[in-house]
Design a protein that fits this description.
Layout lengths: L7 E6 L4 E6 L2 H7 L2 H12 L13 E5 L13 E6 L6 E6 L3 H6 L5 E5 L6 E6 L3 E5 L8 H11 L5 E4 L2 H4 L7 E3 L3 E3 L4 H7 L2 E7 L9 H17 L1 H10 L4 H7 L15 H6 L2 H7 L1 E5 L9 E6 L2 E4 L3 H7 L8 H14 L3 H16 L21 H10 L4 H4 L3 H7 L8 E2 L2 E2 L9 H9 L15 H4 L10 H21 L11 H12 L5 H21 L12 H4 L2 E3 L2 E3 L3 H16 L10
The structure holds iron/sulfur cluster.
Length: about 600
Amino acid sequence: MINGYNGKGLEVDLSSGKIKEFTIDNEIIKKYIGGRGLGVFFLTKYFSPNENPLSENSPLIITAGGLTGTRTPTSGRFSITFKSPLTGTITSSNSGGFWGVNFRKTGYDALIIRGISDNPVYLYISEDKAEIVKAADLWERTLPELTDTLRNRYTKSVKVLGIGPAGENQVLISAIMNDYSRAVARGGPGALMGSKKLKAIVVDGRKKFFPAKQELYEAGIQQSNKLLKSMPVTSKALPQLGTIGLLKLINDHDMLPHKNFQDVYHKPENIEKISGELLRKKFLLAKRGCFNCTITCTRKTKVGEKVGEGPEYETTALMGANLDIYELEEIALANYICNDYGMDTISFGNTVGLAMELFEKGYLTIKDTEGIDLRFGKKGILQKLAKMTALNVGFGKFIGEGAKRLSERFGAPELAMVVKGLELPGYEPRASYTQALGYATSSRGGCHLKGGYLVTLGFFGGSREVNRFLIDTAAGHVVNEQDSGCVADSLGICRFSFYGFGENELARIYSGYTGIETTPEELKFKAQIIQNIERNFNIKAGFTKKDDTLPERMFNEKIMIAGEPRAIDKESQFEKMLKKYYEIRGWDKNGYPKD
Ligand code: SF4
């Protein structure tokens, strides 16, 4: 067995109620690392790309990263890999907190869940025992209620991952949550878990791991910590204000979407009303960090009598600025509902933005919305909409289907701000051509993280600085950052730490931890293999070159950005970047991997 890994996984069949252990071959671990890589390997092994993502056979694959739970900074992450019920693409989403660390300590690197239970159940996993337990009494509970109940039932040290009412109702934008408010959000994993009638997974792990080469391991960790301390974004900006602190900076770069990405104009006084500074002043209770993280970007907040986490940057951008709603209290309260009921705040905010544009343009009437005035800027509706969506009632049923389906249902598909069916996050593509290409080529669609998170490199990338408007260099940057991101996802490291350190330090740590000498180039090469597998999965699922694109608005509607009217010219700019991207990836002119 490779040092630091468990070398085994657990397969749970909820239809038959059977649980069995299996061995994970060393060669598989060497090739796919863990986290996203191992998840992608198992998904393609167990599931055909053209099957229904909510079928009995559709697996939910949970994998610890190669360095999850080690002393590597920000190494608390684990991945969940599945075929997205929302989009149909392969999707690997990850989350921080503490659950993944505890999962690895139960003695397993992977958990494969298939089948559908007749009645609600949860899983309990420790080093000694793995069992399926009845959960009728837990159904319909919110995430805080669920988590408190299960921690009281076992011990306070167990970690809980689960779904809220949104996942139970198979809402397509529902999330799986862990540690109360951390989210595996994108692509609708909550709907898949809900379809299996699996309410929660409790992990109770205690196993200890030791590095194979202590000195090398320590040297890499020390170097990583030093770099995190030396970069202003990881030592000051994020620790001081959390991710919401990015809002002003992103607005200053004309990148903050407004009115369903129709423009990026926000009055400065409005931005003040939803800023990180205001959150700190009015609502902050404490800073929080995931496992072994000094960046501590999470915010514990209190609004009225309600205590929760956030809102984060993405939530504030999509459920606030994008909707022309500049009320931090309202955004925070709606965010609490999304967290408690288990919903992706990016997809929710983006889809509400679409509904508002449909409403203002007459595609949706007040009868369709059952009396809800959906004009942009309308106050007092977010909490109601969030609850209706999670409970799958009234007009909320349509919001819960996501932007692509909503736009098609009401006859205006061109107004959905999605890529491959996944709602865009809070960064305007016309304000960063590199990020635009990242969105278009991301394996799970409109995602800044899988797309490479290029958007912020133009402001505080340090050694990774890129010019956001340069067409000629965009493809190289996108490939490089997507590969780095895939390394982070497979090792179980938070993307924010990449503003400080990267695969150079991680290769040293991984070599020291496992005892297998590994170079940064090898890690990136493995990341390319993983992404080629994702690409092939999507092709077999029916996605083609025509899906590597952006909403038409990005090509046809010019808006003022950085002092110039900008759209992305489809032929001379976008197609040129895409062609170059395929070439660098070694794909043919239609985007098919050659091997
Ligand atoms: S930077 Fe934020 S999200 Fe990342 S590990 Fe730290 S607290 Fe968690």
